[in-house]
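Section 5.1 Outputs to date
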Amino acid sequence: MYLIKPYNQYGTEINSHDVLKFIAITAMIIDHIAYFFFPEATTLRLIGRVSMPIFLFLVGYSGKYKFDTSLFIQASVLVMISYVCQRDIFPVNILFSIILARLFLSLLENTQYLSKYLFFTFFALLFWYIPGGLITDYGSTALLMALAGHIIHRSEHKNFEEKLVFVLIFAFHIMMQLYMSNFVLWQQITFCLFMTLLVYIFYYYRLIVIKMDRISLISPIILFISRNSLLIYSLHFGVFIIIKHVFI
């Protein structure tokens, strides 16, 4: 059921969501291969730095913030696998970050809080950066990325405050990633270029159908991976944890 339902959500043709999610899940798997099995391969980790911003931006852009039972079940199963294999669950996986981001935006949207106190919300999330990162993957950064997606989704003609907060979100993320990573100079420059490109794409982002007639052979692959990205994440992440801590 879970494998079929997503196909009907955005139609049967490839759209901009599909392309971004395909890029994100591919980059994430490459990143996790390095994280679990080749920690010295910082170039592979660099590639994976684009995945979280894409996923959480799309969470905010979707405008749909209802609780997803299947997402919660997958997140909980991964927590149990982590506890059994590693005897540790914190920070909990990014699926809980997605659940929290949806809840966060739902509450703020229902109370009209964001439209009145956008700056305050941004700075409050900055203060939550360190404690949040101890509880969930990416902590308040995940919420900030979802907030950026929400800003783009809700307003075609953004005011100065919305534009400034959007830019500050990514400036903060880039700064913290450079500070915490062990990238060498060329990797830092590459990361900044990647993020600059993403910021440009996100700022002008719209959900559109993409014609891919010339590469029709890979179109079904893109569609399958993108429409099942969360399930693919759960499967590969759980398997990698088991291989790392049980068989190696």
